[in-house]
Every structure is written in C-alpha cells, then in structure tokens.
Amino acid sequence: MLQNYDWPGNVRELQNIIERAVILCETPVLYVDETWFRREVPSRAVQPILFNTALDTSEREMIERALSECAGRVGGLTGAAAKLGLPRQTLESKIKILGINKFRFRRPAIW
Fold it and tell me: Which residue has the higher pLDDT, 89 or 4?
C-alpha cells in the first residue's frame, strides 16, 4: 500500500503517515489505515468565501454608516476614521478596496 501510493505530498506526507501509524499502533506490527490515503475535498471548502463575503458586507455597512454620520468626511477628529478607531490611511484603503464612493455621503454646504 505504501509503495503503490503516488505521494503527492512527497516526504512530508510519508512522514505524517508513519508518525500517525506509530502513535496509533497498539501492537508490535505497524498498521497503516488505507483511509489515511484518501483525498477528499472537504465539504467546508466553500465556507471561507462565504465568510469573507460576510466580513466584507459587514465592514462595508460599518464604513458606510460612519461616512453617513460624518457627512463623508474621512479624516480629522470628527471623521469616519476616528469614529471607527482606524488610521485615516487604513480607512481610505478599505474604502478603495470595497469600492465605496465616499463622495455620495457628502452633504451640500449651506451658506
């Protein structure tokens, strides 16, 4: 079984299989379970994408709410960055990455 396996993980994978066998072995004969060689795609493979999407959505909502409350102002003592507890440059970067139009939150000046 060990010789017929193609070892896509190379030496590290072989080392892990042998270590597992030594740790789990209860007899003087080394036993390797064939299920240790199966390559199954985890059903949770999609979750990181959903997780990141949820994070982006939540982050977008928080940033847009702060920009709305600060009339589109990012920096300064009364800006969205201070409200969110972020450096101005970090918030500017997040606004750019998330594709938020910060100018839509500006209120017209009243003279």
Answer: 89
Place of tokens 């709410």: 65
Do 100 and 55 fall within a single domain? yes
pLDDT value at position 82?
95
Same-domain status, 58 and 21: no
Ramachandran bin of 72, using left for φ above 0, alpha for ψ from -120 to 50, beta for the remaining angles: left
Residue 65 lies in a domain: yes
- What is the CATH classification number for the domain harbouring 75? 1.10.10
Averaged pLDDT for residues 103-109: 84
Same-domain check for residues 86 and 54: yes
Q: Please provide the distance, in angstroms rounded to a whole number, between the alpha carbons at the two ends of the chain.
A: 83
- Tell me the per-residue pLDDT of 61-82, one tens digit each, with 9 for 90 and over: 999 999 999 999 999 999 999 9
| Side-chain half-sphere CA neighbours of 111 within 13 A | 0
Cβ-based neighbours of 26, under 8 Å, separated by 6 or more:
none
Both structure tokens of 111: 């003279």
Q: What are 59's two structure tokens?
A: 């982050």
